[in-house]
Amino acid sequence: MRLLLDTHALLWWLSGDTSLPHSAKKLIGSRNSQVLVSAASAWEIATKVRLGRLDVPADLAKDFGGYMARERFESLSISTEHGIRAGSLPGAHKDPFDRMLVAQAQIEGLAIVSNDALLDGYGVVRVWF
């Protein structure tokens, strides 16, 4: 399965937080899963660390690529097509990071690992059980 991690799912995976359902952990850890992390998540984490709104290991924002490599997660860059789709999405979801994840999931055919039920209205597969 090809999975795109929402930022909170990524953070919960990295910290071993029990908020991430066991079944989602199993999918993320499966050798049969391709796990991708959007550049939008790196941007969101760095922004929230800078603003003092996120308590994570001090080096996470600085060594984001290292963390991804250790977990064998793949980085998903933001393309022009992703940007246009994210900016054009209808609906009430106001979080620009989540709108980008939706656009990437739609274009790349990815399931999103997220607890955000608002994503369901965008025709993407959301993994959270």
Write the layout of secondary structure elements.
Blueprint: E1 2-5, H1 7-15, H2 22-29, E2 34-38, H3 39-50, H4 64-71, E3 74-76, H5 80-88, H6 96-108, E4 111-113, E5 126-127
Parallel strand pairs: 1-2, 1-4, 2-3, 4-5
Helix pairs in contact: 3-6, 5-6
Characterize the structure shown:
- With 129 residues, the chain is α/β, with parallel strands linked by helices.
- It has one domain: 5'-nuclease (Rossmann fold), CATH 3.40.50.
- The protein is built from six helices and five strands; from the N terminus they run E-H-H-E-H-H-E-H-H-E-E.
- The protein has a five-stranded parallel β-sheet with strand order 3-2-1-4-5, with helices on both faces.
- The chain is globular and about 35 Å long.
- The two termini are 15 Å apart.
Q: What's a concise summary of this model?
A:
This protein is an alpha/beta fold. Helices cover 46% and strands 13% of the residues. Helix 5 packs across helix 6.
What does the average pLDDT come to? 95
What is the tally of beta strands?
Answer: 5
**Order of strands across the widest beta sheet?**
3-2-1-4-5
Identify low-pLDDT runs.
Answer: none
Q: How much of the polypeptide forms β-strand, as a percent range?
A: 5-15%
What kind of sheet is the major sheet? 5 strands, parallel
Radius of gyration over all CA atoms, rounded? 14 Å
What do we call the CATH topology? Rossmann fold
Q: Helix- and strand-based class?
A: alpha/beta
Q: What percentage of residues falls in helices of 4 or more residues?
A: 40-55%
Distance between the termini: 15 Å
Q: How many independent structural domains?
A: 1
Element string (H = helix, E = strand): EHHEHHEHHEE
The CATH class, by name, is Alpha Beta
**CATH architecture tag:** 3-Layer(aba) Sandwich
CATH superfamily: 5'-nuclease
User: Count of DSSP helices?
Assistant: 6
- What's the overall geometry? globular
